[in-house]
Structures are given as C-alpha cells and as structure tokens.
C-alpha cells in the first residue's frame, strides 16, 4: 500500500525527526476489528494495565451482557463522559475528567435501561447510581465508542485472567488500549490516493476529484480540485466536513450547502483552489449523533451543549486527515476559506502553513440564525 508521510505532525509515536514510524499492520487491524465489533455489540478486551472487557451501551444485546457477566470479574460498570454522567447523576462534574464510572449490580440491568442511560434523547429514567473509581483504561474504552461513532457510553468490567481460554472467550478480540488512543493520529498516515478523475461541475467545468482512503472503516475523503491550484503560491483551500442534511438535502438548519457551492464558485473565479470534502459528518460525531444533537437543540440546547449532552466534545474533527491530504497534493502554503479560527489553529497544529484566513460568511436564512449566532458566540466564528 502506498502510504503518505504526514509532514510536521507532533506525535507521541514520532521519532526524533518528527516522522511517524510505520504502523504495525497487526495492531492496526485489531483497532479496525474492534470498531466493527463495537458497532455490532460484540464485547472486546482492552489490553493494557488491568485489562477490561467492554461493549457499547448503544449496541449491546442480551448476549453481550451475558459475556460481560461471565467473563468480567466482579465490578461491572457503566462508563460515561462527564458531560453525560452529570445529567444521569444530576450533579455537576468536572468535565476535564476522562470518564465517570457508575457501579452496576448483578444481575446486570436490562438493555433498554442501558440505552436510556447512554442516550439523552430517549425517555429518561434514572435509577439511583453510585459513582465508583473508573479503571485505568476507561478513557480508551470511551475512545472505542467514539471511533465507532456510537454514543460514548460503555459497559465494562475487569476481565477474568485466562479469559481467552474460557469457552465463552473464544473469538473475542483483544486490542491494545494505547492504540485506540493514538488512532486518530495514526490513521492519517495510512491515507492513500485511490482514484482521480475529471468531474465537470456547474460552477467549475474543469473540476477534478481525487479520492483518498484511509485504512479505517473504508471511509473515503475527497479533494475537489478547481482549475490549477498548483499554479498559485498559496491557493484558496476550503476544509469542508460532510453534511448530509445541508450539502445533499439543502437543510436550512446550517450553512453548509451554500458554503460548499460558494467555495467552488469563488475558486473558479480565482482560477484555482481545493475543497477537501472530509467524511467527518457532524464535526466528527457522525450523522446519527448529529441528528440526536438536533433533537436536543429542538428542546432548547445550543449546538455546543447538545454535543456535550451526548458525551461528545463540541468539535471532534481529525485535522490530521486534512493535513495529510494537503501534503499529498503538494500544497504547503494555503489561504484558508473559513470563519472558524479553531480550524486555522487545528490545521497549523498539524503542520499546515495557513498564510491567510479568507472569510466565508453566508447570510442567515431565517432558520439557521440562532445556529450561526451560536457559532460566533461559542466557537469564536468571525462574521466579518
Ligand atoms: N454536531 C453538530 N454538527 C453540526 C451541526 N450543524 C452542522 N454541523 C456539522 O458541522 C460541519 C460543518 O462545519 P464546517 O462548515 O466544516 O466548519 P465550521 O467549523 O462551521 O467553520 P467554517 O469553515 O467557518 O464553515 C458539518 O460536518 C456539519 O454536519 C450541529 O448542530 N451539530
Ligand atoms: Zn450542515
């Protein structure tokens, strides 16, 4: 496979020269399989100090609960992000903690109740819970839920020693917890070009698409090349996170559709530019979670608090992907079309030289006024 070096990344895995070592294919495969198992509700074992057996509350079924019960030693827990746990426990919690653990007693509570505990959009019933000390690998457990684009709410227990040789342990996967935490950075290093073709667009008849794939869930990221960006010292670049509702359906809840079309038009007028169309829907939380966040927004939360109520951060995008794509396209210096200063900072932290921020303001449409005002107030979007 033709992997790209990722320039300028700072990584805990990096050697002294700042380049990433090649990914260990066996360990990388274990992460991918763990994500797949999590989405199917199959428990996995997180390897490391004090290994855990873990399964997402959103996908677990009776069989998964049975495995936790039989292969876990005592002390099953529900792990939640502090922002979600605060609502369950109905007390303020320190949001900088990696996870909050709630003790589960045997017999383990039913699947429907676990889903309600994970998902604030469902009818809430809050049985009394006691907080217990989270295990050392709790953060990696929540990271697995996030990599699977599920709600970060995980049922877990310390796994019994010798679990792999027990009849029920056969076929369960062990994945190093550290690899789950390092994954966002590592996956960008596996990006490779898979296709390139002309796709004439309404507003840019000479546009070309370059498709990239990483070694993750098969998600594809697109570069839309307008004109000849390489002819410019610092071409206009738009980093656009996919928005099924806005880009495709024309949803009025956001400004994504007009921003996408507007960026392409503007690049065509300038004679060149690149839109990176990233498969990071909902600022990286996934489409289903974005729809849940909309439900919470309809109940009065703003876009930031809705993400947090689900247990996600306000912006969970992986800018290493964009940096790796720009490096592959040979774009070292760019002018970034955005109103979001955090995007500029996020790219710069990944080694991209953003020589100028170019505003990309879209007028409110009567439905998204509050959303746009919230982006200005809470993300510091510049509306100049
Ligand atoms: N979680 C969440 N995501 C949203 C919401 N509204 C839109 N999005 C997502 O936000 C992303 C759009 O953000 P962008 O336009 O790339 O960037 P931005 O951070 O708003 O900054 P700009 O570059 O100024 O547009 C898309 O992935 C949308 O799906 C929302 O209410 N909640
Ligand atoms: Zn949108």
TrEMBL record:
Residue stretches making up the GTP cyclohydrolase II domain: 193-359
Protein name listed in UniProt: GTP cyclohydrolase-2
Positions of the UniProt region annotated as Disordered: 1-25
CC terms in the record's Gene Ontology section: cytosol
CDD domains, per database record: GTP_cyclohydro2
One GO-annotated biological process of the protein: riboflavin biosynthetic process
Enzyme active site: 315 (proton acceptor), 317 (nucleophile)
Residue ranges with Polar residues bias: 1-16
Domain of life: Bacteria
Family under the similarity heading: Belongs to the GTP cyclohydrolase II family.
Enzyme Commission code(s) on record: 3.5.4.25
Keyword terms, alphabetized: GTP-binding, Hydrolase, Metal-binding, Nucleotide-binding, Riboflavin biosynthesis, Zinc
Nucleotide-binding is among the record's keywords: yes
Keyword Zinc: yes
Record's cofactor remark: Binds 1 zinc ion per subunit.
Cofactors: Zn(2+)
Role according to the record: Catalyzes the conversion of GTP to 2,5-diamino-6-ribosylamino-4(3H)-pyrimidinone 5'-phosphate (DARP), formate and pyrophosphate.
InterPro entries hit by this protein: GTP_cyclohydro_II, RibA, RibA-like_sf
Coiled-coil segments: none
Residues where Zn(2+) binds: 243, 254, 256
Binding sites annotated in the UniProt record for GTP: 238-242, 259, 281-283, 303, 338, 343
PANTHER family hit by this protein: 3,4-DIHYDROXY-2-BUTANONE 4-PHOSPHATE SYNTHASE (PTHR21327:SF18), GTP CYCLOHYDROLASE II-RELATED (PTHR21327)
Pathway: Cofactor biosynthesis; riboflavin biosynthesis; 5-amino-6-(D-ribitylamino)uracil from GTP: step 1/4
GO molecular function, one term: GTP cyclohydrolase II activity
Catalytic activity: GTP + 4 H2O = 2,5-diamino-6-hydroxy-4-(5-phosphoribosylamino)-pyrimidine + formate + 2 phosphate + 3 H(+)
The organism's taxonomic lineage, starting at the top: Bacteria, Pseudomonadati, Pseudomonadota, Alphaproteobacteria, Acetobacterales
């Amino acid at each position: 496979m033709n992997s790209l070096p990722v320039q300028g990344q700072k990584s805990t895995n990096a050697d002294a020269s700042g380049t990433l070592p090649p990914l260990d294919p066996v360990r990388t495969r274990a992460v991918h399989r763990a994500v797949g198992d999590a989405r199917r509700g199959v428990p996995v074992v997180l390897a490391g100090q004090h290994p855990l057996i873990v399964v997402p509350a959103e996908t677990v079924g009776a069989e998964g609960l049975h495995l936790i019960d039989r292969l876990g030693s005592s002390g099953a827990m529900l792990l939640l992000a502090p922002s979600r746990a605060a609502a369950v426990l109905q007390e303020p919690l320190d949001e900088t903690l990696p996870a909050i653990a709630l003790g589960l007693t045997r017999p383990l509570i039913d699947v429907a109740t676990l889903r309600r505990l994970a998902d604030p959009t469902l009818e809430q019933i809050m049985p009394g819970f006691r907080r217990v000390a989270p295990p050392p690998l709790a953060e990696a457990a929540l990271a697995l839920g996030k990599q699977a684009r599920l709600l970060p709410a995980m049922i877990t227990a310390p796994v019994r020693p010798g679990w792999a040789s027990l009849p029920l342990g056969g076929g369960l996967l062990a994945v190093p917890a550290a690899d789950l935490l390092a994954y966002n950075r590592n996956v960008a290093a596996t990006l490779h070009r898979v296709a390139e073709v002309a796709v004439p667009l309404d507003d840019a008849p000479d546009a070309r698409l370059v498709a990239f794939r990483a070694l993750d869930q098969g998600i594809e990221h697109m570069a839309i090349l307008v004109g000849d960006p390489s002819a410019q010292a610092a071409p206009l670049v738009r980093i656009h996170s996919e928005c099924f509702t806005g880009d495709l359906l024309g949803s009025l809840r956001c400004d994504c559709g007009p921003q996408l079309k507007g960026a392409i038009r503007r690049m065509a007028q300038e004679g060149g530019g690149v839109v990176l169309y990233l498969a990071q829907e909902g600022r990286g939380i996934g489409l289903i979670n974005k729809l849940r966040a909309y439900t919470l927004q309809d109940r009065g939360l703003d876009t930031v608090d809705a993400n947090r109520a689900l247990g996600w951060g306000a912006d969970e995008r992986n800018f290493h992907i964009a940096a790796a794509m720009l490096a592959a396209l040979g774009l070292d210096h760019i002018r970034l079309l955005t109103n979001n200063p955090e995007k500029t900072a996020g790219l710069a932290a990944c080694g991209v030289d953003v020589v100028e921020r170019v505003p990309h303001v879209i007028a409110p449409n009567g439905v998204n006024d509050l959303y746009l005002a919230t982006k200005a107030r809470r993300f510091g979007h510049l509306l100049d």
